[in-house]
Each structure stands twice: as structure tokens, then as C-alpha cells.
Amino acid sequence: MLSTGCASNIYMGILEKKYPGAEMKQALWRAARASTLPEWYAAMEVMKELNEAAFQDMMNLPPKMWTRSAYSRDTQCDLQVNNMCEAFNRAILEYRDKPIITLLEGLKFYLNNRIVKQKQLMLRWRTALCPMIQQKLEDSKRNSDKWFANWMGDEYMSLFEVSRDNEKYSVNLESRSCACRRWDLSGIPCAHAVASMWFGRRVPEDYVHSSYRKQTFIDTYSHLILPNNGPKLWV
Ligand SMILES: [Zn+2]
Asked: Does 2 have pLDDT greater than 50?
């Protein structure tokens, strides 16, 4: 079965070819990246004005396969598209047409190298979060200055209204949720959530999903591929 990210990648590739042009591409991706239904409707309206046929094509696709606004918050994934299958295929290209033993030895060499490199990289990293995720959180921290968080007075200091000009989002720190849905979908607090955290002097890093922690990454790569001898020692 295709993952939503993977399916989204395929659909967007096909549609970009079918309906070329910078404006259309922008409208397609705006609709794909929209994390709420109102944002998605607005993007689809733009698309309808640009090209009615493209709009109809997109409306006929199941939204949960291509737009963030229809993704479930269970995923907790920051990726809109997922090229993992293609990336793996490219990585093993030089071994793919080899005899079976050479192929397996090649795959083992590749996988072992990757595990060791990732492990070394992460052991050098000083913060509790993975580097890319820390950067995204820093973006949220920077943008949080533009928002005003208003505490609703609940016992756990977790309910907030976060506003700027005529925009307003409800945040629940306890359930790790913001009405913009970016935190819910990605597991990385959005600027609205961070603005609420500052109010109660909380540490935003504590609210990032556990799958992005350095320790989780190290645990993921903790398994070893054991060494083996060459054919001379085989029975
Ligand atoms: Zn938000």
C-alpha cells in the first residue's frame, strides 16, 4: 500500500506534467500543504480560477491521499512527500544486477555503512532533538514573537487563544494540539503553541514528539549487522 506521502508525490508529479506553469504548480502545492480545510478551500478556489479541468481532477482524488488538511494526526510526520523507495533503489543500483551472493554482500555493505554513519553523526550532536527538527523548532520560536497568547485560566495552564491581527487559533498544550493543525500533523510545535509555552515558562523542546529525539534515533540504529567470513571458510 502507498503511504500518503508517497501517493501525494506521485499525484503531484502527474498533475504538474498535465497542467504545467508556475502559477498552477504554486496552486497545487498550496492546496497540498494546506493543513486546515479553510486553507484548502481557498487554495482550490485559486486553482478553479486558473484551470477548471485541473480543479475537477483534484476534486476527484481522495483528499486524504494528497492534502495535509485531510491527513490524520496519528501520522506525526513532517514530510509532505516521501521518496524513500526511489532513494533506496538508487542507492543499490550498482548491486542490483549482480549474482545473488554479490548482491547480498553489496546490500550488507551499504546498510552497515549507513547505520554506522548515522550513529556517528548522532553521537556528535549535542542537543536532545535531531538537527533538522531542532531547526524547525527554532523557526517556530522565532515566529512565536509575532503572536499574542491569551491564557484561558484552566488548572493546568494548557488552554490558550493565540492571536495576531484578525487571525486566532486555539491551543491545547495538554493534548498537544493547535487549530492550525501543524503541530498535530507533524509532532513539532507551531509558532502558536510556542507562544503559549512562553506564557507559562515552558520548554518547547519538551513538547516535540518522542520520535524526533536523539535517543530515539540512536535506538533505531542500535541494531548491528554481524560480521561474516568469506566463501573460503564456508562448509
Ligand atoms: Zn498553530
From this structure: no
CA of 144 to the centre of ligand 1 (A): 10
Cell numbers describing residue 41: 478551500
pTM of the predicted model as reported, rounded to 2 decimal places: 0.78
* Calpha distance 27→32 (Å, rounded): 9
Alpha-carbon distance values, 3 to 25, 65, 80, 94, 181 (Å): 22, 8, 11, 27, 20
| Ramachandran angles phi, psi of 145, nearest 5° | -60, -25
42 Cα–ligand 1 center, Å: 18
Residues with CB under 5 A from ligand 1 (ion): 169, 178, 180, 190, 192
3-state helix vs strand vs coil in the chain, percent to 5: 60, 10, 35
Q: How far is the CA of 204 from the centre of ligand 1 (A)?
A: 13
